[in-house]
Each structure stands twice: as structure tokens, then as C-alpha cells.
């Protein structure tokens, strides 16, 4: 009833009301005004255009704006969808989004015909944690232990971070841990006591592992394999397992001193990182054993047999043969002791495409290949289970010779004579080359 706005009705709450007008003693009829609930006019989806790492979960929210300017959380009322489920999947009831692969997708919330959306950018997976294994609680004084760091990413994938992480010991005087490239994660029990071991990579730290350096006494040493026989020229890696008085066992290959009863047959290495590596030097046998602090291991009889074929090399490595030509191939056997021997007559030769190139296994012509047709083939030499092959291409026939006719012709002065040139090719075919060749005369004053 305010001057200038008379007759304007403001709806406040849902319901009904009778509207009438009066002037003096004259009243209008009554009009019933029904007020309905406010209507949804828009939806906003948040967070707005976020970036989320692959494998993570993000909750989206839908906020509705109504005709009465009120706002309301309509997350549970909306139907949710993802424009690219291969990038991110959304729970169509709750709005919870799980990222699947890097890329973009639209996350949409819809109620009736009203919708709102947000662009989700899925970024590469993030490192979320680091685990150290093995989770042991003690190392015997003087021994070493290799630890491994495994990175766990937001997409649940894992990666070996042992050589990438920085290793930390809370008390290096008790346990030293390597950070040298190629040796990272190797802990050495230097002094009785305890220390915490952890790995750090890109600001992510593993949980520390408390380790105690104990003073257990070694009871026995067992080396393996229990028996060994290898060909001359090969090597055999031996292991040493120490058994302690509490029954625990540990690899001590790098702590023992290795011995061979016959170093001329099979010398064994004590160099760093090569401990226990025996080399089959000559045919015969030798006893291999290890000693640590006056404790001797079992002895293993190590037999060295004659060198065996290790690989085959084919010569020449000629990858192209003209049609009609032949090529003699030889096979060289490389043995375990690095010696090389011609085994051309012992191998079986074969061609993968015998219509293009054939190769002989006959006694007199073994290894001789003949180029039959333009094409490709593999030539293989096989002996027992060892084989080698080379790729061969047969190219077009090449010109081998030219003959001219007629031969030794006598003609009168000022008379012309036609000569012809015929080419013979590597595949035996002939062709008239009269107009293709360059002609010459040894005496231009007599004939040209």
C-alpha cells in the first residue's frame, strides 16, 4: 500500500492468501493468490575447473540457486555424469569422482532440465608414500643388508626407488647406509646399538625402521650350489649362507674368504662385488669352499668340462645378392672358452624363402647360396639347438659381360658396317645393348 507500489504483491512462503481492494465503503471481490515453492533456476558445480592427480578421489558439490534468490546444496538431488569416463568416473548419486587417466573431462550435475558443470584436469599420478623392505628388526654386527625402497603412487602403481631415494640412518656410527650410485640402500652393521633407517624421495619420507645391531655368533657356513659342472670358459656364482647360534640365517658371500683347491682349473674371486665367482679355466675338477673367522664351509666339487658351442656367426654378412649370382657362406662357432672354429660343414643351412634364394647342404657345395628370384629371405645356420641367421635381399640381375658382332669383319673402304652389342646378365639372360653402349674405335683414321 506504499505510494508508487500499491497493488504489488511479494510472495513470502508457500501457501494461499485472499487479495481484495477497497475505496471508501466500496470493496472488490476477493482473489485467491496461491504461492508455490521457489523454482530452481541454475546449478553451480564446485570445485571450479580443478586439477587432480591420476588415481585420486575428489568430491564435487552442486549448489542450486532458486527463484527466491535462495541457494541450497543439491549434491544428493542431482544426477552426476562425466563426459569422458576413461579419464574420470563419477558416482551419479554422490558426485564423488575417481580419476583414471591423464586428460580433461566435464563433470556435470543435472536436475530436470537444469545443469551445471566443471572441467576436471587429470594430471599424472603423484608419489604418495614410500615403503622399505625387508622390515627386519636386527642385523648381526659386521654384516650387511640390502634394503629396497618402493614408491606408491596416487594411481596405486608402484616403482622401485632404491637407487633414486636418499637413504638416512639416524645413527651412522651404529648402522651406515650407502648412498653411492649402484649401492644405495646397503646397510652395514658397524657397532652394537640401534638406529632408524628411512628413505626420502621428492620430499616424501618412508616410515623409519628401527634396527638393532646384535652380537650373534656364527655357527656354520653352507655354500651352494651343492654340485656344479660347467663348460670351460663359463663362470659359476657361489653363495654362502651363515647360520647363527639363534638359528637365523643370512647371506655372507661378501664376508667370507673363498678358496679353490686347484686355481689352475677353477680360480675363485674375492674382489669386491665379485666374491664367490668361479671361472672354469681348464678341464678338470677343484674343491670350492669358504672360511670366515676360522669357520669353514662345506666343500663343493667343481667340475670343468670341455668348452661347448655358445653361438654361431655367419660370414660374410652380405645382405644383397644380384639375381643369378651365388655366394659362399661360412659358419664360425664361438665356444664358451672364447675360441672360434669353422663349423660350416657341421651346421644345417636353410633359407626362409627358397623360391627367392636357395642354399646347399650337399657335401661339396655346403653353404653355397643361389639367388633365384627378386625378393627377401633369411639364411640360417643351425647346430644342435644353436642357430644364427642373416637377412638377404635378392636384387635385379646385373650386367656380367658384353659381346659384339660380327667378329673380325673385313669391309671395303668407304663402306659402312653395322655392329651389334649384346649384354649377358648375372641370371643368364641376354639383351640388345646396341643403342645403350658407348662405341669406340682404336684407330679413328681407319674406322670410326
Automatic annotation (TrEMBL):
<feature type="domain" description="BIG2">
    <location>
        <begin position="39"/>
        <end position="121"/>
    </location>
</feature>
<feature type="domain" description="BIG2">
    <location>
        <begin position="217"/>
        <end position="302"/>
    </location>
</feature>
<feature type="domain" description="BIG2">
    <location>
        <begin position="126"/>
        <end position="211"/>
    </location>
</feature>
<dbReference type="InterPro" id="IPR008964">
    <property type="entry name" value="Invasin/intimin_cell_adhesion"/>
</dbReference>
<dbReference type="InterPro" id="IPR003343">
    <property type="entry name" value="Big_2"/>
</dbReference>
<dbReference type="Pfam" id="PF02368">
    <property type="entry name" value="Big_2"/>
</dbReference>
<feature type="domain" description="BIG2">
    <location>
        <begin position="308"/>
        <end position="393"/>
    </location>
</feature>
<protein>
    <submittedName>
        <fullName>LigB</fullName>
    </submittedName>
</protein>
